[in-house]
Amino acid sequence: MTGNPVYAFFPEVFTTSVRVNPDVLRSAEIEWFRVGDGVGKLAEFYHDLHHGRDRDEGHPDYQRKANNLHWRLRGSWPFWFGYDILKRVGEGEEFPALRTAGWPARLYRLASFTTGNEDYRQSEQIAGRIYYVWPHHYKMAPKFPGFFIPVFLLLPFVGAAWIVLHYRRTGRMPESETALPLLLIYLTAAGYMGYKYLLADFYLYQIIGIMAPAAVLAGLPFHWLKQAMQKGGTQLNTVYTALAAGSAAMLLAILVTPGLTFGLMGFKFSGAREVEGQHFNQLALDAFRNPGMPPDLFLRLRYGTDVDTWEFANEHLTGQRLLTHENRHYVLDPSITIVQLDDWDIQAGYEIDDPAERARFLREQGIEYYLRIPNEFRHPINAELGMHELEDKGFLEFVYSPDMSEAEYRREEHKFDARVFFRILLPEEMTE
C-alpha cells in the first residue's frame, strides 16, 4: 500500500487492514534487517553475546530478539563511530594469527582518514565465531557523534538549567527570540532519532534529513563560546578566532577527504571486474580516468551478470507476466509485468498443498516464467509459495542462467546463489 521503504516497518499497525497481510510485513521486516546495515545489526549481535548465543541471521527461521530500545542503545557506540564492527565468521574459515587491538589502536583508527579493510590480523575474538574487526567505515564519524550527539544529549539539561537560573535571578521566565526556533530544530532532530531507535533500525539513510538540524545543533557550542570570549576582551576573542579556524579546517578535512576519495574511486562500483576484455579497479581510479563511461559499461561494472539477466528478459519475455523477487523494473521492457512472490493475488497459492495444482494456479494467473534471484531467500514469506518444491517435483523447467549452464546448475551446491529463469510447467506439459 505504501511501498518501500515504509510498509516493512509497521506490521503491528496494519493488523486488520484490507489486502495487507501482517505475516508479509513481518517477513519484509526481517528482509530489511538482513540487507541493511543499521544499528539493529549490532543490537542483535550484542544480545546474542550477552546470552551466549551464536545465531545465524541467514537461517530461514531466524527471528529478531533485540528489536527494542535497550539493545539498540547497547549497539550505538560502535554503530555511530564505525571503528569496530562485530563480524560473524563462517564455519571452516581460517585466519592468520590474531592480535588484540586495544584502545590505542581503536582511537588511532577512529581518527584516521582511511576506510580500512577487514583485516583479521587486527581482530579480537569475542565469543564463538564472533570477532571484532577494525575497519573505519565513515558512517557518520567523527563529525556527527563528535559534535551533534553530545549537544543532542546535553541540550535539554543545559536549557533547563538556563531557565531555572534565570528565574531564580530575575523572578521571571527568560525571553529569547531564538528559543522557539531552537526548540523546533531540536524536536525535529529528536523525531528522526526516535524514528531510528523506536521504529526503524534498518538503514542510516532513512534519517538522512537529520543532517540539517544536526548541523545547527552541532554549531551551538561554537556560538556560545564566541559569545563568552567576546565578553572577555580582545585576547580571548583572538583565542576564539584561532579555535574557530582550527575547527573549520578540521571540518573541511572531514568533508573533503571521504568525498574526494570516493569521487575519484567511483562510489557506485566496487572491487575489480573485467568487462569486455578491460580490467577495472576502484583503486586504480578507473572511473575517474574514464569520464563519460557508456551506460551499458557502467551497469556491467556495477551489477555484473544482473545485466545479462535483464537483457534476456527484454529479448525473450516481452509482454509476459514474470514471477520474481526482482524489483528493478526500470531496466526491464515496459511490457513485462513483474509479479512478486508476495503479491496479494499470489498469496492465495500459499494455501495450495498439491504442487500440480499450485503450478496450475500460477499459470491461471497468466504467469509462465519465474526468475529466481539470490535476494529472494532474504524474504522468508517467499518460501510459502513453494517454488523449491515445484522444482523438485519437475514443474520448473530450466531456461537460462547468466551465472552457470544447466549442467553446472544441477550439480552446483550453491545453485541458489544464481539468477535463473524457469518455465512453469503444467502436469500435461511435463516429460519423463
How would you characterize the overall build of this protein?
By secondary structure, this protein is α+β, with helices and mostly antiparallel strands. Among the domains are: 1-33, no CATH class; 36-133, no CATH class; 272-301, no CATH class; 305-429, Rossmann fold (3-Layer(aba) Sandwich), CATH 3.40.50. It has 16 helices and ten strands. The strands form three sheets. Strands 7-6-8-10-9 form a five-stranded mixed β-sheet. A three-stranded antiparallel β-sheet has the order 1-3-2, with helices on one face. A two-stranded antiparallel sheet has the order 4-5. The longest helix has 32 residues, at 234-265. The protein is elongated, with a radius of gyration of 27 Å. Mean pLDDT is 80; it is low at 1-6, 95-100 and 113-121.
Can you summarize this structure?
The protein is an alpha+beta fold and 432 residues long. 45% of the residues lie in helices and 10% in strands. Strand 2 (124-127) and strand 3 (130-133) form a beta hairpin.
Compute the CA-based radius of gyration.
27 Å
Number of helices, counting only DSSP H or I runs of 4 residues or more = 16
Highest-level CATH class of the domain at 305-429: Alpha Beta
Strand arrangement, major sheet: 7-6-8-10-9
Low-confidence stretches: 1-6, 95-100, 113-121
Assembly annotation? single chain
Q: Could you say which overall geometry the principal axes of the C-alpha atoms support? A: elongated
Largest sheet: 5 strands, mixed
Count the beta strands: 10
Q: How far do the termini sit from each other? A: 43 Å
